[in-house]
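Hi R.,

As promised, here are both runs. First protein below:
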Amino acid sequence: AGTLYALGDVQGARMLMEDVLAVLSRTRSPDHPEVRIARANLALALKRLGEIDAARAVEEAVLEELTATLA
């Protein structure tokens, strides 16, 4: 997904990021670092695509989970 993103195919990267997140969500716990990283990466793509509200929602959820875990 990172390569597609770097090449400017942000929509393609988003689709791949969503697929990766789906696989990770099925194979790892929701609080697994890889799941959180995948969600944060998806938020970056959403932001770049102009989906600011969706990006913010994902970022806030990740931050809330991290805060709860580290508290």
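And here is the second one, sequence first, then its structure tokens:
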Amino acid sequence: VSQSRYVGHNRIQVSTAKAASYELWTSNGALLQKGQLMAGTGFVDTGHAPAGVLILRIVENNRTETFRVIK
């Protein structure tokens, strides 16, 4: 289970119990970036992302959670 919260204009704070992968998408379905998160608290950079609604998809142990973030 993971938690996500927007922390200003350039990053999203993500907390996961185990290592996880993530994908950051625009609301139009364009993949902006993907990467890996270590267990604990980490950050996803959104400095390059356009303003508007972003979709953050986190996969941890074959479980997928999706968050909508407004930048």
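A quick note on the second one: The mean pLDDT is 90. Let me know what you think.

Best,
J.
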